[in-house]
Amino acid sequence: MIATSGLVDFHCHLDLYPDHQAIVRESEEAGVFTLAVTTTPRAWSRNQELAQATRHVRAALGLHPQLVAERASELPLWEAHLTETRYVGEVGLDAGPRFYKSFDLQKQVFEHVLRCCAKAGNKVITVHSIRAAKAVLDHIEAYLPPSQGRVVLHWFTGSKAEAKRAVEMGCYFSINASMLDNERHATMIAAIPLDRLLTETDGPFTKTAERPSKPADVAVVVEALSRLHAMSAPTFATMVRSNLRSLLEQSGEGA
Ligand code: MN
Asked: How many angstroms does the Cα of residue 105 sit away from the middle of ligand 1?
């Protein structure tokens, strides 16, 4: 297994592990750049407080599409916190059967989120798009000009053509191990330009060795992606880190 120091977990729910503080400390000690996404704006402040005391963990301000049905009223709170961070997420759209009934409301919320990010400028946004790749890309195209922010598509499972469209729009992709288990998705992922690839765990929602994945488990993704591209794992890890640096430089901060 490769060293964890310098790896990138660009989408992880640190506040959903049994001990939030302990997993933040563990990510920090492993030296993994970890983007701690949030699902509601109420969770933001505690995540930001813990992240600010670290070198490697950052917090993102989110309003998860699966929670929009109950939490759309927290949108003003989301907006109020936006000046406190460059990282936004988890946001996006979910047209899966359990959440389809809120799809219109999700679209209103996502439009507002993107408009606010465009107005503020310089944001890096981690976006959910389950069964909604086209709608997500349509929204980004309509409401977030490429000069005004950067999108990282998280657990993207659209078609190859949709991935190509996303690349042309300037999007990045954060890839997790579960995505690579699916042959169709793996083929789509193999066609993404190397300089747009990031890695993620989406822990604790994915598993590594029968337990919830932790940020350091992103090493498994690096190894799988490096095999897919016939590169060595350390070389691939260095490339992902350099992709992260480019992404952040386009919008301001070094990694
Ligand atoms: Mn997630």
From this structure: 19
